[in-house]
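dumping this here before i forget
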Amino acid sequence: NTVMAAQMTNAHRRFLQVLMSNGITEGSEARKLHQHCCETDKVYYAHDKLDDFISTINSHLQPLFMQIRKGISEDDGRAHYAVVNLAETEVTKMASDYTEIELELFRKTMDLIILSENGFASSTDILNLADQLKTKKMKKKEAEQVLKVFVEDKWLSEKFLISMLVSLKNGEYTLHTRCIIEMEQYILSNYQDVARKCNICRSLAIQSQVCESCGIGMHLPCVRKYFRAQTEPRCPNCNEFWSCDIP
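structure:
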């Protein structure tokens, strides 16, 4: 390789350490962190050079099969950064942190989420799977605890839908932005028939709206942005009328 990768400085190392310990960092936080690291370690700082700063780190992470990746939150369309292990194709990234039975529950939850219409799985459906696990059956109480840990560790996100009729809180789970950034390749290759990329930003879309005519999907923030400029909502792919409610 004739082009030498730019030198890693203490600022780069500090930035990487924080990113790794956070698991995932929101874009504005990453920009603040970039400035903080450069100023602390007296390294030249330019506010618009975060991507260059990260690609320097990535060139040094390459031999370790790791990479800082940028992804978009499906909720609000904001950028996030996560450190991804490229060597691990399976859900093995998680294998060191969880037991086999917990991983099985996670895989089954992921199935439910990806195969669903809207990118969510209800806690009821997930807990019903708990006593059908191959590894060993899991009690509902245990399963609830495990789900809580997956949310704390930023593999799943939870939303509560309060039903007016019953005073029951029914949790709905989806994949956390961290999970989508880290497992995009895994999901695209293991769910080839159902996993779709957003027609606008080309990254994996879990929570999405789908065109009834041609079947393309778009993230909700991308739908919002795309149709803002249009007088009437038509599919960017087949030009048919977009029948979903624009968020």
